[in-house]
Fold this protein.
Amino acid sequence: MNAARRVLIAAGAALVAIGGFFAVTSLTPARLVWLGVWLAGAVIVHDGVLVPLLALARAGLRRRGTTWPPLAVAAIEVGFAVAGTVTLFVLPELWAQHRGSPNPTILQGDYAGRLLLVLTFVAVAVLVVVRVVLRGARAARTDSGDAQPRR
Amino acid sequence: MARRGPDLGRRGFLVGIGASAAALVALTAGQSFDALAPLNLFAPRTKGAGPQALPVNRTARQAGVTDDAARNGWTLDVSGPAGTLRLSRADLDRMPQAAARLPIACVEGWSTSADWEGVRLRDLLDRVGVPADRTIRLESMQTHGPYRATTMPAEYARDPLTLVALRLNGETLDLDHGYPARIIAPGRPGVLQTKWLTRIRVEA
């Protein structure tokens, strides 16, 4: 283990300790319980929703039989993480908007439309990266004498 | 770059976490930071969206304050060792006025600065002889909500920027912003900026 990693681990542990100290000293027991519920909710959403979706996506990629360059896979998975996080943030807003609020200065946006826009943007960005990577890989194969005709 | 097959790898994983966090911050923090306001697609609040270009945390209707109650017979009672002043909105308008540019920084996560005008709180406290080191109690005419009454330590009450605000961004306070009068003080969370102020006294 190198020094940089040790420093990072120490800094992370110190932050956790400080946070824990202030949580215990400044929050009432009832609030601490709700904090636990909230943190557990994050784990449930991550392990119960995001990870299964990602596993399905990976299985889909494998079924296509192609061996994808690692960079292309990374781009797809990073895109998935961004899209999933943003969607998880927006879904409760859509629910609250549907339920209605007596306060007209809150939740005024067209969040569904904007979410669609952002998801489209992420998808296009991922497709562009994947295409560039695949083209680069194909060119490298051709250069190294692989018998593959170039278009 | 991950070179270990189909796995995302540690670096890819960190890039994914970083990109997700950056995207979410970029698309929501504009409800508090001017620089990111044009990118604010998903935050529940929008800078400048609300009466007099300021969002509202709790409307008059939610707080159980009616237009009629705020306009007819409203007074602000200020009590101290020298007695009680009963001030109408017109009385407050006639007193020396001060201005401050201060934010409503809401614990819900949004923040917007505004120009406030009104009477300095310390001037009112001096008129009824409240000693400079006393914590004071502010009461609202609102009937619902946990912040009907709040206490304010002396360092805030005596700050020259702390106002009993009567006007906001050049206009008479909107009912949803606390008409006839509200407190605005620097460095306090939005829920403690008592609206529909009706009583100021020394904390027992």
Remarks:
- Helices of chain B lie at 9-28, 60-63, 67-71, 89-94, 121-127, 154-157.
- The mean pLDDT of chain B is 92.
